[in-house]
């Protein structure tokens, strides 16, 4: 596996993970998978990978999530870094889902852990997971098959989802926004707003921004190219900027946070959003969000 040199991850965490993880099992899984076939199965050849995703290193792995190594190691690493227990933290998102949604979209679904938990919690719902990495989608499909669950997996850019507006009751994003630059985050939230039905709910589980600000060394612990910008912002402001209302956040232990909000009903729009009548571009200028190229040059 190719990794960048001299990062904190490489010097300290990589040796620790080497001890904690089942290296023979990971190497066997990697060697036994036809990754070319996996990519061909899931890759939408018409998709243009955004430059922020294509040209960055995540978790000290070259090519980031466009690498089979990332797909193989993601689950065992995540199990250790989400404290105190990954399943407990992810379950907090499930517990905050209102009612019994019929259609659920999981943005940046990765290897499908959150998507699978959503399907198991709401078995009658149609769950769709979308991700930019065909390798992660391959792993997600494998996990769903092992759990005997039917989930729709889609290779795509969550900034521009090729689905009709107002078609999902619930949209989730777990561990996504600390890995996107601010302008991309805002575009994703706009797209989520478009896709949600009026009265629909968005739930976001991610790294705790207050903790990251209070303990800056955590920002250097992993190779996350956009973690500093994420830590300096506030997810509730970003949601309000996108048009969401009834926004709440709660800490999940000390390292994670869960935020949920809703797309207003027509009768709520004029009374609950301070941005009524302000275009998305004007909203961005109010917050002075930095720009970032969405597509490679």
Automatic annotation (TrEMBL):
Q: Which UniProt keywords apply?
A: Methyltransferase, Transferase
Instruction: Name the PANTHER family for this protein.
Output: METHYLTRANSFERASE, METHYLTRANSFERASE DOMAIN-CONTAINING PROTEIN
Instruction: Report the protein name in the record.
Output: Methyltransferase domain-containing protein
Question: Which BP terms from GO are recorded?
Answer: methylation
A GO molecular-function annotation: methyltransferase activity
Q: Where is the Methyltransferase domain?
A: 104-200
Q: Which Gene3D superfamilies match?
A: Vaccinia Virus protein VP39 (3.40.50.150)
Q: Which InterPro entries match?
A: Methyltransf_25 (IPR041698), Methyltransf_Superfamily (IPR050508), SAM-dependent_MTases_sf (IPR029063)
